[in-house]
Amino acid sequence: MADTIPLGRTDRFLLKLESADTPAHTASLSTFKLPAGAHPGFIRDLVQELSEQAVTAPPFNYVLAQKGDTAWTVLPPEDIDLDYHVRHSALPWPGGERELGSLISRLHARPLDFNRPLWELNVIEGLENGRFATYLKMHHALADGAAVIGILTDSLSTNSDEPPKAPWARSFATTLREERESIQPPEQPAAQSLLQALGKVATSVRTRPASGFVGPFVAPKSVFNTKITGARRYATQQIELQRLKAIGAREKVSVNDAFLAILSSALRRYLQEIDELPDRPLVAAVPAATLRETQDGLGNSVTVIYASLATNLEDPVERMHVISESMRQGKQFISELNQQQIAILNGLVLLPAAFLNTIGGGTPSRPIVNVTISNVQGPRHTLWFGQAECEALYPCSMIVQAQALNITARGYRDHINLGIVGARDSLPSIQRLAVYTLEALEEIEQRLGL
Description:
By secondary structure, this protein is of the alpha+beta class. It has 12 helices and 15 strands.
């Protein structure tokens, strides 16, 4: 009899989010330099080598035996068709970022096959300047975005002497559920705790400084909070970490505050250009790990902070300080909640999407947030895939009904790598956001004389 792994309530909730318009997977895009002297068939041989490595590592061997299952079934290696899961793609000439973004947009829009383990790996050749890429896609019920990138980085090596190893053929340091299990939708019996948590939010909104704390349901209506279809757009950008550190040191704010400030400027400009900038400031859901005291002692807790992006302010430096204060107030508020209340408030980010899925989409009258923005630290050392040097690691997150935009960043070496996912039929030309992000950084640097 096959082994089974029970589905957690977060797993079940994320599986229910799956629809043709909202495929509930997350992914990682990585770019590599071809090894010096690589022969013309290098990528073909790499795909073949990966396809011959048996699937032994969870969750790559997990499958839902039938719809409505309450547990994953663990498949033996011989029952997993790697020729299906491992795919070889190529970009048209000239193989630039535009061509790569177009391909990833199409791949990310395509749902996974629920009759098989819920993952795919595309190896992509034809990138300009002697490069190739991999795109690893996994269902969110198997692993969240941070875990997908963690799986990928754990499968890479710190030296170029080790042969390339498939992610599904080795053990991992990454704990797949550590982050996700603290960001869960509430069970029905938690109604009393839900009311208590919302009561704390209401009290904080009344008593904390207007320029600081924001909570759910205070976000303005925006073009980001609309019905979405299954089509996607994807764009990437790189930011030098040292430039953000210099801004933070100059203005006595955190690197993440500086990061949010330049995204705020980019979002403000984008909305102005399409004549959709709300009068009130946009509100972002910002996942963050905070150190807090629990009954079991001192431990790590992943929380969602609701933060003002101060998009109603024209001056970018003033905006950055308002964002910094909002983040400080949000962290202080979270520190006053118990674990169940944190889980409930975190789950609110996705609950409207689940409801809108059941009624076929729609637009909420009061958005909980306007956009989700996440920034996760990553390895500072160089990683290798065999003799191929990893250049960049880009997240590729999911979007849901009424949240048509997601911006996720991952650190690698001396850069922060942005992955921007948007609803193709709702948001025009989100590639401009990637361009505006760097221009916003330059604007703040000029204002500060850096």
